[in-house]
Design goal:
The chain is mainly β and 526 residues long. Helix content is 6%, strand content 46%. It is built from three helices and 37 strands. The strands form eight sheets. It has a six-stranded mixed sheet, with no helix packed on it. Strands 10, 11, 14, 17 and 19 form a five-stranded antiparallel sheet that branches. A hairpin with a 4-residue loop joins strand 36 and strand 37. About 3% of the residues have low confidence.
Length: 526
Amino acid sequence: MKKNLLTLLLLVALNSLATAAVLDPVVISTRITAAFPIEMNSLDPYLLTANVSTAATNASITAVNFTIDGVEYAATNPVVSQYDYWWTPSSFGTHSISITAVDSDGNSSNFTSTVNVANPTADRTIQTFENALIDWSSLGSQWAYGTFTMPQSVGIYENIVANFSVSCPSVSGGCDDWDRLCWVQIQNSAGEWVELIRYITPYGIGCNHTIDVTDFESLLQGNVPFRVYIDTWGTGGWNINLNLEYIQGTPTYKYSSVNEIWEGYYNFGDLSNLQPVPVKTVVIPANTSAMNFRLITTGHGWGSNNTSNAAEFYYAVHKLKINDITNASLNQTLWRFCNPNPDNCNGQLGNWQYNRAGWCPGAISTPYQYDLSSYIPLGNFQFSYIFKETYRDYCNASNPNCVSGVNCADCNDGYNPYYRVGGYMIYKGDQPIPTLATNNPTKENYSVQVYPNSTSDIFHVKLDKPWNTIVVTLHTVSGEAIKNYHFKTTEELNAFDFNVSGLSAGMYFIKVYNSSFSYSDKILVK
């Protein structure tokens, strides 16, 4: 009898836990951490953020409140799922902070922590990735993920320096033999991914690199998700190391904010769309005293089927326009001299020494910086990025006069020139700067189907959710990209016939990706 009673009580308890899980779908995540004090020279406003969501069907978040030392304050300025509160501490010392969120079904959740507000102490070095492995052969992945705890502060760090290195792992092939596109991203409080570093791996050796990332100081606070991507395949991999040095000093401005303008892949010289980068409205938030635009562009695709060997080996001058007005000081000369290597990454194999469009093997791509402070009095403005207007990729399926075997080896080759673009506006001021929304989506779970996965001619790719700017690449087993396709919508991708009838029989890799998601698989050509 006692055994049956205990079993009954256990079942009731388990059922209650399951019910609670179903009835409590509100989730709160926050950057706030007790691991570091909030350091400041005087009692200044500090941004508290909470990312809040609910899994309840058809429900929405209706209230988010911050309770500090027993006093409740309503969150302000919701952007995507981010809720803010600018808190001015009443004193140095320990404070209690709790966050409460409620959805429209009445479900709620709570987060509680304590923080210490303190005067600055010393410079800090924070280790993030340490020998993190990226290797397709052993892991089947081109990504490394981690969440790391950063210092919290207002106006005490003059510089933040990222020390990034790659080394040869203990895997088959060791270091990858090829120059691979790589980037490091951090996630902001709204769940959007922001590019911290653009990098191209060296040919077969490890190297060390340094770059100033002070522009991203507002995002490098508290608990921060990081991820690293390397376009590596079956010819070795990489160990990744990244630390950040926070160097104390007096910054010109106490506050800053980052807003994405462009992020993605854009065809170059495509006759069907010669200027694919969308015109954006730049919103200048309150309290902005200075602003700069941080632009990273790298050119990819080259060979006999790309007019003038573009985009990797093509010298081009692009333009930035404000309200459709060109200013020569905003031109971008997209070219890097690679010999000597700009990051002193010496001893490489391969053709590392040739100059390239915005990058070099074994080097961080230095961002182009534009001081736009003089445009602040204009208020919000239209911002355009104009690729070199005279360039045409004539060996391209979009060219009606392209004839395979006559004026081009293969008009449908697909490996056409393109640029990867990352552009961020950095706002600065001595008063708190409101958060702005971007269009950079969070990492979601997508379903991608490649079928039939054994074919002698046609295969298809099916994506289950709407995307814009989709890239599909086909690679040899050594990782060489032999086909490259760009699609504007999911519908366009799903309707496309991928024809591999001209390829030799064997195993190939296929990759489907945009700026926030990547899917890789194998495909057998018979």
